[in-house]
Amino acid sequence: MYYGYHFWGMHLIWWFIWLTFIFWIFATPYSIPGQRYKRDGPLDILKKRLASGAINAEEYREKKKILENDSEK
After folding, report:
1. Number of Cβ within a 10 Å radius of residue 38
2. pLDDT tens for residues 12-71?
3. How far does Cα 27 stand from its chain's mean position?
4. Which residues contact residue 15 at a Cβ distance below 8 angstroms, ignoring those fewer than 6 apart?
5. Is the pLDDT of residue 6 over 70?
6. pTM of this structure
7. Distance between CA atoms of 12 and 20, rounded to whole angstroms?
8. Rounded CA gap, 43 and 47, in Å?
9. How far apart are CA 21 and CA 10, in angstroms?
10. 19 contacts 27 by C-beta, under 8 angstroms
């Protein structure tokens, strides 16, 4: 029926479509909304806690200073 041409024609096109789709899934950048996301860093979490009122400005400054000193080492 195929006479040895199994990978030509539409079959080859489907392989190309699937490989492109798989590449797109794994190569999607992290900044696209609704897609993969980066984990929040310690300063980001600290800023969110300040914004939500879980800590006050003085605690924020103290903890930020500690985090910044740790990152310099």
Report:
1. 8
2. 788 889 999 988 888 776 666 665 556 778 889 999 999 999 999 999 999 999 988 876
3. 10
4. 7
5. no
6. 0.46
7. 12
8. 6
9. 16
10. no
How far apart are alpha carbons 72 and 47 in whole angstroms? 19
Rounded distance between C-alpha atoms, residue 47 and residue 67, angstroms: 12
Structure tokens at 70: 């740790």
**Measured between alpha carbons, how far is 50 from 67 in angstroms, rounded to an integer?**
15
Q: Report the 3 state secondary structure along the chain.
A: CCCCCCCCCHHHHHHHHHHHHHHHHHHCCCCCCCCCCCCCCHHHHHHHHHHHCCCCHHHHHHHHHHHHHHHHC
